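Postdoc handover notes: sequence design on the structure in folder B. Input C-alpha coordinates:
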Protein backbone atom coordinates (compact mmCIF):
# COMPACT_ATOMS: atom_id res chain seq x y z
CA UNK A 1 0.00 0.00 0.00
CA UNK A 2 1.36 3.44 -0.87
CA UNK A 3 1.59 6.53 1.36
CA UNK A 4 -1.81 7.89 0.30
CA UNK A 5 -3.60 4.63 1.07
CA UNK A 6 -1.92 4.29 4.45
CA UNK A 7 -2.71 7.90 5.39
CA UNK A 8 -6.35 7.52 4.41
CA UNK A 9 -6.66 4.36 6.49
CA UNK A 10 -5.11 6.16 9.45
CA UNK A 11 -7.27 9.25 8.90
CA UNK A 12 -10.37 7.21 9.66
CA UNK A 13 -9.11 6.49 13.19
CA UNK A 14 -10.74 8.81 15.71
CA UNK A 15 -8.46 10.70 18.09
CA UNK A 16 -6.06 13.56 18.54
CA UNK A 17 -3.03 11.31 18.06
CA UNK A 18 -4.10 10.59 14.48
CA UNK A 19 -4.83 14.24 13.82
CA UNK A 20 -1.35 15.26 14.92
CA UNK A 21 0.43 12.28 13.38
CA UNK A 22 -0.90 12.83 9.86
CA UNK A 23 -0.32 16.58 9.65
CA UNK A 24 2.50 17.06 7.15
CA UNK A 25 1.74 13.81 5.32
CA UNK A 26 2.02 14.11 1.54
CA UNK A 27 -0.68 12.45 -0.61
CA UNK A 28 -0.87 11.74 -4.34
CA UNK A 29 2.53 13.46 -4.82
CA UNK A 30 0.63 16.73 -4.72
CA UNK A 31 -1.12 17.48 -1.40
CA UNK A 32 0.31 18.14 2.07
CA UNK A 33 -2.17 17.55 4.90
CA UNK A 34 -2.41 20.34 7.47
CA UNK A 35 -5.37 19.60 9.77
CA UNK A 36 -8.71 17.82 9.88
CA UNK A 37 -11.62 20.09 9.02
CA UNK A 38 -14.38 17.54 9.56
CA UNK A 39 -15.27 13.91 9.74
CA UNK A 40 -18.37 11.87 8.94
CA UNK A 41 -19.21 8.23 8.29
CA UNK A 42 -18.61 8.86 4.57
CA UNK A 43 -15.34 10.81 4.59
CA UNK A 44 -12.66 12.74 6.42
CA UNK A 45 -12.00 16.25 5.12
CA UNK A 46 -8.54 17.76 5.53
CA UNK A 47 -7.17 21.22 4.98
CA UNK A 48 -4.33 20.54 2.55
CA UNK A 49 -1.87 22.50 0.47
CA UNK A 50 -2.12 21.67 -3.23
CA UNK A 51 1.31 22.06 -4.86
CA UNK A 52 -0.20 22.10 -8.35
CA UNK A 53 -2.70 24.90 -7.63
CA UNK A 54 -0.39 26.61 -5.11
CA UNK A 55 -3.07 27.22 -2.48
CA UNK A 56 -5.06 25.59 0.31
CA UNK A 57 -7.87 23.18 -0.55
CA UNK A 58 -10.35 21.00 1.30
CA UNK A 59 -9.36 17.40 0.53
CA UNK A 60 -12.12 14.84 1.08
CA UNK A 61 -10.56 11.41 1.60
CA UNK A 62 -12.65 8.44 0.53
CA UNK A 63 -12.74 5.66 3.16
CA UNK A 64 -11.50 2.14 2.33
CA UNK A 65 -14.97 0.58 2.28
CA UNK A 66 -16.01 3.02 -0.46
CA UNK A 67 -12.69 2.80 -2.33
CA UNK A 68 -13.01 -0.97 -2.59
CA UNK A 69 -16.45 -0.63 -4.27
CA UNK A 70 -15.90 0.03 -7.99
CA UNK A 71 -19.45 1.27 -8.57
CA UNK A 72 -19.20 3.70 -5.62
CA UNK A 73 -15.94 5.10 -7.03
CA UNK A 74 -17.54 5.51 -10.45
CA UNK A 75 -20.47 7.35 -8.84
CA UNK A 76 -18.04 9.66 -7.02
CA UNK A 77 -16.15 10.29 -10.26
CA UNK A 78 -19.41 11.24 -12.03
CA UNK A 79 -20.60 13.38 -9.10
CA UNK A 80 -17.26 15.22 -9.13
CA UNK A 81 -17.61 15.93 -12.85
CA UNK A 82 -21.15 17.21 -12.33
CA UNK A 83 -20.03 19.35 -9.39
CA UNK A 84 -17.25 20.88 -11.47
CA UNK A 85 -19.89 22.38 -13.74
CA UNK A 86 -21.54 24.29 -10.87
CA UNK A 87 -20.60 27.92 -10.42
CA UNK A 88 -22.21 30.01 -7.69
CA UNK A 89 -20.82 32.32 -4.98
CA UNK A 90 -22.42 30.15 -2.26
CA UNK A 91 -21.12 26.80 -3.52
CA UNK A 92 -17.55 25.65 -2.93
CA UNK A 93 -15.86 24.81 -6.25
CA UNK A 94 -14.82 21.23 -6.91
CA UNK A 95 -11.37 20.97 -8.46
CA UNK A 96 -10.53 17.32 -9.02
CA UNK A 97 -11.15 13.63 -8.35
CA UNK A 98 -7.80 12.02 -7.56
CA UNK A 99 -7.09 8.31 -7.28
CA UNK A 100 -4.25 5.86 -7.38
CA UNK A 101 -3.97 2.13 -6.71
CA UNK A 102 -4.72 2.49 -2.98
CA UNK A 103 -6.75 5.64 -2.38
CA UNK A 104 -9.15 8.25 -3.73
CA UNK A 105 -10.02 11.84 -2.81
CA UNK A 106 -11.91 14.89 -4.01
CA UNK A 107 -10.20 18.28 -3.87
CA UNK A 108 -12.37 21.35 -3.51
CA UNK A 109 -12.26 25.01 -2.64
CA UNK A 110 -11.41 25.69 0.99
CA UNK A 111 -13.83 28.20 2.47
CA UNK A 112 -12.52 29.65 5.73
CA UNK A 113 -15.32 30.27 8.20
CA UNK A 114 -17.77 28.68 10.59
CA UNK A 115 -19.24 25.24 10.03
CA UNK A 116 -23.01 25.09 9.71
CA UNK A 117 -23.14 23.33 13.10
CA UNK A 118 -21.22 26.16 14.77
CA UNK A 119 -23.33 28.78 13.02
CA UNK A 120 -26.52 27.11 14.31
CA UNK A 121 -25.10 27.03 17.84
CA UNK A 122 -24.28 30.73 17.63
CA UNK A 123 -27.80 31.54 16.45
CA UNK A 124 -29.33 29.54 19.33
CA UNK A 125 -27.13 31.32 21.87
CA UNK A 126 -28.48 34.74 20.83
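Designed sequence:
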Amino acid sequence: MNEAGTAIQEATVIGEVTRDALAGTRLFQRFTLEKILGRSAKATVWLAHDDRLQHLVALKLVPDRTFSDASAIENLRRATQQGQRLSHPYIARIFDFIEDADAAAISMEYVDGLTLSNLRLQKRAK
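Context for whoever picks this up: Confidence is low (pLDDT under 50) at residues 11-17. Don't rerun without checking with the PI first.
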